[in-house]
Design a protein that fits this description.
Layout (H helix, E strand, L loop, with lengths): L1 E4 L2 E5 L9 H14 L10 E6 L3 H18 L3 E5 H9 L7 E8 L4 E7 L5 E9 L6 H6 L1 E5 L3 H8 L5 E3 L8 H13 L30
Parallel strand pairs: 3-4, 5-8, 8-9
Antiparallel strand pairs: 1-2, 5-6, 6-7
Helix pairs in contact: 1-2, 3-6
């Protein structure tokens, strides 16, 4: 959770847990805002990382954000999670690099996108099944930084390529960079329809098949 204003970041709170709920998030949001000396009613908009990502995390986050927007009568801003991740690492590299944030999906699959140093989209967000020739054309003539919790899957495939770079530290989606992008969207009045907005799951949620158990007689 992070609170941003015209002057930049005002307050933030990061919590890493496998368990999350709308009630927990609402409490942390309220605390973050209050510690910065504001109230929820002082907000001009509510921003959310719309995905891609885990089904449960996106559902909880978006339902919480929409609930706040309804209760406070505030607009909703949705930011691509991968775009926000790219903004986290960009300051640490020169402008001739491209940035490929990756979020772990199932097996050898990741959610990925590619951005340049100005955060322009080079490759759109998509689900990628990683193979040795994945991103081959891009790596022929560009230095590309791979990061995020999905990057570990592609490191054995690409690490011998002199144009492939990896960040040892795990880069998680951050409300700090979501807020930076949300401020830009706010200035352009790029708001979502609260009624119809849904998380960007990228692909359908799949549940494992139910196992049938036949009792022994």
């Amino acid at each position: 959770m992070a609170l941003h204003g015209d002057a930049g970041l005002l307050a933030d709170y990061e919590l890493y847990t496998d368990r999350s709920s709308s009630a927990m998030l609402t409490t942390l949001i309220s605390s973050t805002v209050e510690h910065a000396g504001y109230t929820l009613q002082d907000l001009d908009a509510v921003a959310i990382a719309k995905g891609p990502g885990s089904y449960t995390g996106l559902r909880v986050g978006v339902s919480t954000a929409k609930g706040l927007c309804y209760a406070l009568d505030k607009p909703l801003i949705a930011i691509n999670t991968l775009e926000a991740m790219a903004l986290q690492v960009k300051p640490f590299f020169t402008k001739d690099f491209l940035f490929c944030p990756m979020i772990d999906a199932r097996r050898m699959e990741v959610y990925a996108s590619v951005f340049d140093a100005e955060n322009n989209i080079i490759e759109p967000t998509k689900a990628v099944i990683l193979q040795e020739d994945s991103f081959e054309d891009l790596l022929k003539s560009n230095k590309v930084v791979f990061f995020g919790d999905g990057a570990a899957k592609c490191k054995p495939l690409f690490e011998k390529n002199p144009n492939a770079f990896f960040i040892s530290e795990e880069i998680r989606p951050s409300a700090k960079t979501v807020g930076i992008l949300a401020l830009r969207a706010f200035e352009k009045s790029e708001f979502e329809n609260i009624v119809t907005f849904e998380p960007y799951y990228l692909k359908d949620f799949m549940t494992p098949p139910t196992r049938k158990v036949t009792p022994a007689v």
